[in-house]
Amino acid sequence: MNDEELRQAMAMLDVYRNQLESMGNQVQLLQMSLEEAGKAKDTLEAIHEAKEGDEILVPVGASSFVRAKLADADHAIVGVGNKLSVEKKTEDAVAYLVKNISEIQEALTKANESMADLETRARQLSASVQKAYQERQ
Asked: What's the rounded Cα separation, in Å, for the pair 96 and 110?
């Protein structure tokens, strides 16, 4: 490896590191979305089993809840993206969330596969750079 190739390899390693950091952030966001959708699905399933007038605990985030009386167990308002929410029958809302969870899991799998591939390429390039440095000494 000549000097120019070595400089290019080092620059590519920096690119790989930045891409890995970005992908790591994306994976974290997908995992958070997956957890949130799972909690919403579980909550809607529990509400669907309740009766109108039942006292329930409504999650408000950060492991905090408020007590409420259920006014309508047959309908839920569900976010469908871009800050848009629609009212759906509870069972349709659960089905929507199940589909959403599946899509998030698929995206998470692809992101993890891409990260693993990039990590492999980065390791191989790093080994080549290390070998070139050792040969120079």
From this structure: 21
The Cα 47–Cα 55 span in angstroms is: 10
How does pLDDT run across 17-75, given as a tens digit for each residue?
999 999 999 999 999 999 999 999 998 998 889 999 999 888 888 889 999 999 999 99
The token pair that represents 25 in the structure block: 């952030």
Please name every residue paired with 56 in a beta bridge, in sequence order, or none if there are none.
Answer: 68
Inter-CA distances, 62 with 17, 25, 37, 87, Å: 32, 21, 15, 25
CATH code where residue 116 lies: 1.10.287.370
- How many domains does one find in the chain? 1
